[in-house]
Amino acid sequence: MAKIGVFGGSFNPPHHGHLLIAQEALAAFALDEVWWMPASQPPHKQLAGNVSDEDRIALVQEAIRHNDKFSLSLLEFEREGPSYTIDTMRTLCTRYPTHEFFFIIGGDMANSLEQWHEIEALGKLVTFIAINREDYPLKENHYPFSVEELYVPSFNVSSTFIRQRLEEGKNTKYILPDGVRRVIEVKGLYGTEESPRNR
């Protein structure tokens, strides 16, 4: 039985913090792979920036291409309308009945699991890996399903912060993977290209 980590998010853009979380989960839980799953239409927010789904797919592909334990899943792009985690996991469990799935979430998401769509049904399909960081500490929970805690060193950078720096022409070297920075520059994403002095 393969142990698969499912790492969902808007990845707008993917950065070193995302890579660190995925790698820490892979190692701590002896996962066979981590499947990165960009959300096509997050149900609770609109995507920021001037990026298309195709742009974000290209950015994730570039971010993970040097790690053979990471792969890209486009499952959420197969459906129209809002995408809920329970729908995604039901599809995955049907397609891969011999796999064991671990769903990787940040502390902010773990602290509000009771608000998720069909959370009790979802909790029967996956083991949650909840990331505990200094900036998003986990609160004590009493969920009737498995939520495993994983401490990850803090990488206090968000995709919002990165988008702002890109729009202002500020440095993102060592914040974004070099390949992701190149794709952003070539495509002219997030407003303006970086200043040459920041490349």
UniProtKB/TrEMBL annotation:
Sequence ranges assigned to domain Cytidyltransferase-like in this UniProt record: 6-165
Superkingdom, taxonomy of origin: Bacteria
Pfam families according to UniProt: CTP_transf_like
InterPro entries in the cross-refs: Cyt_trans-like, NadD/NMNAT, Rossmann-like_a/b/a_fold
Enzyme Commission number, as recorded: 2.7.7.18
Molecular functions (GO terms): ATP binding; nicotinate-nucleotide adenylyltransferase activity
Gene Ontology process terms (BP): NAD+ biosynthetic process
Known pathway: Cofactor biosynthesis; NAD(+) biosynthesis; deamido-NAD(+) from nicotinate D-ribonucleotide: step 1/1
Keywords, comma-separated and alphabetical: ATP-binding, NAD, Nucleotide-binding, Nucleotidyltransferase, Pyridine nucleotide biosynthesis, Transferase
Family stated for the protein in its record: Belongs to the NadD family.
PANTHER family, alphabetized: NICOTINATE-NUCLEOTIDE ADENYLYLTRANSFERASE-RELATED, PHOSPHOPANTETHEINE ADENYLYLTRANSFERASE
Name this polypeptide is given: Probable nicotinate-nucleotide adenylyltransferase
Source organism (scientific name): Fictibacillus macauensis ZFHKF-1
